[in-house]
Design goal:
By secondary structure, the chain is of the alpha+beta class. The protein contains four helices and 14 strands. Strands 1, 2, 3, 4, 5, 6 and 7 form a seven-stranded antiparallel β-sheet that branches. The protein starts with 9 loop residues before the first strand and ends with a helix.
Length: 216
């Protein structure tokens, strides 16, 4: 399995041991299991191990994943580095909302105690262009991104604003110049996502003068 094909949020089936000594200490039917990828570099993959034991220390309930029939819990304080020889297969991928919730939970743990292999600076939240997110009571529409920031426009339900848009039948008011940059290193609640057609309509209606700058 090529680790270059893995992304943050992927659920992988992998060996729970890295050497013969560790292997012999684990029961035969527990030597393999699911992990959630939370960071990837050129040579390393960082992942959270999963368990079906709900009584495990500080276990976070994830639910059922892929074709795995049991309820899955995450062992958030046991972030581990997985070597490429330990991977067996990719099971599925979590959506951004779920992986961001996991990262937010992990960040809260990191604010109280250290975790081996991982720190606050390793946490990056993933959102898509077209997402409507909530932060400090305001709603933002993500229309583009840079290395460290999401470029957004503030959405309003009432007031005197120049333009209006619709996302999933919801009407919003805005000014195209009322933009903000939101850090990728912060958690935001995802409220909804614009469809591809809605994204095109928003670009044409709101950013008509800047459309080439945004896209290119």
């Amino acid at each position: 399995m090529d680790i270059n094909d893995l992304n943050i949020g992927d659920v992988v089936w992998a060996r729970r041991y890295s050497n013969t000594k560790q292997k012999n200490m684990i029961k035969c039917n527990h030597r393999e299991g699911p992990f959630i990828v939370i960071k990837k570099t050129r040579k390393r993959v960082y992942a959270i191990p999963c368990t079906s034991n709900r009584n495990a220390w500080n276990a976070y309930k994830l639910g059922k994943i892929g074709s795995y029939s049991k309820i899955t819990y995450l062992l958030l304080e046991q972030v581990t580095i997985i070597g490429k020889y330990r991977f067996i297969k990719k099971v599925c991928s979590l959506d951004n909302k779920k992986i961001n919730e996991i990262m937010n939970r992990l960040e809260k743990i990191l604010s109280r105690r250290k975790i081996r292999f991982f720190s606050n600076k390793d946490i990056i939240y993933n959102y898509n262009i077209g997402d409507v997110v909530k932060y400090l009571g305001s709603k933002y529409y993500i229309y583009s991104e840079s290395i460290d920031y999401y470029n957004c426009i503030i959405l309003h339900k009432t007031g005197l604003f120049k333009k209006n848009i619709r996302i999933n039948a919801e009407k919003y008011l805005l000014n195209s110049e009322d933009s903000r940059s939101l850090s990728k290193y912060r958690y935001y609640e995802i409220l909804e996502s614009a469809s591809n057609i809605e994204q095109i309509n928003i670009l044409e209606k709101v950013f008509i003068l800047d459309i080439y700058q945004i896209c290119y």
